[in-house]
């Protein structure tokens, strides 16, 4: 049974973490392994113009959280979704059966973000976010702690192991009470 008492046939999973921790890679591989729908919020925001303009300092769209939630409401009620985004506190708690927070060592993360062209405030803000475990704390404050799972995501072996354990979790869903 879903967190809100709905009887979804397939679970909804949120994959979150600082940019560069492997959310999209993990979500894509997990969707392929389980036939769940992968929803990349960054792509959705661009495709459907669910934003309020561009932030020049952080070099990203300013997402309109209300528009994003309105766009996703029906599909989330159906279940069977893997939502991939670096934030998590604006999604309704009832949507998710599992919240995965990917974490990466700072030296690995620094290299990944530098290769993506992150610099200045954008680079330092994201590294600090990871150091202080901001997204793990945000997830624990926004969702029941028993559905929040932190997973190491430093290399392809970690990602493979994470996809395997998450696939097992999906196959055993819903949990028996």
From TrEMBL:
Residues 1-26 are annotated as: Disordered. The lineage of its organism: Eukaryota, Viridiplantae, Streptophyta, Embryophyta, Tracheophyta. Its main location: cytoplasm. One of its GO terms (biological process) is ribosomal small subunit biogenesis. Coiled coil: none annotated. InterPro entries: Adenyl_kinase_AK6 (IPR020618), P-loop_NTPase (IPR027417). Residues 40-63 are annotated as: NMPbind. GO terms for molecular function: AMP kinase activity; ATP binding; ATP hydrolysis activity. Gene3D superfamilies: P-loop containing nucleotide triphosphate hydrolases. ATP binds at residues 20, 22-25, 116. It comes from Gossypium hirsutum. Interacts with small ribosomal subunit protein uS11. Not a structural component of 43S pre-ribosomes, but transiently interacts with them by binding to uS11. Residues 16-26 have a biased composition (Low complexity). It comes from the Eukaryota. One of its GO terms (cellular component) is nucleus. Residues 115-125 are annotated as: LID. Belongs to the adenylate kinase family. AK6 subfamily. This is Adenylate kinase isoenzyme 6 homolog.
């Amino acid at each position: 049974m879903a967190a809100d008492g709905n009887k979804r046939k397939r679970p909804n999973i949120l994959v979150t973490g600082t940019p560069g921790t492997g959310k999209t890679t993990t979500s894509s591989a997990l969707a392929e392994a389980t036939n769940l729908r992968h929803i990349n919020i960054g792509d959705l925001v661009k495709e459907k113009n669910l934003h309020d303009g561009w932030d020049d300092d952080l070099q990203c769209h300013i997402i309109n959280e209300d528009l994003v939630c309105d766009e996703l409401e029906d599909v989330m009620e159906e279940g069977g979704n893997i939502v991939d985004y670096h934030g998590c506190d604006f999604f309704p708690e009832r949507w998710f059966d599992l919240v995965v927070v990917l974490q990466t060592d700072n030296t690995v993360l620094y290299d990944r973000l530098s290769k993506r062209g992150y610099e200045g405030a954008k680079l330092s803000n994201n590294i600090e976010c990871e150091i202080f475990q901001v997204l793990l704390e945000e997830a624990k404050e926004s969702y029941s702690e028993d559905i929040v799972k932190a997973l190491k995501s430093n290399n392809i072996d970690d990602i493979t192991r994470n996809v395997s354990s998450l696939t097992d979790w999906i196959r055993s869903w819903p949990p028996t009470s």
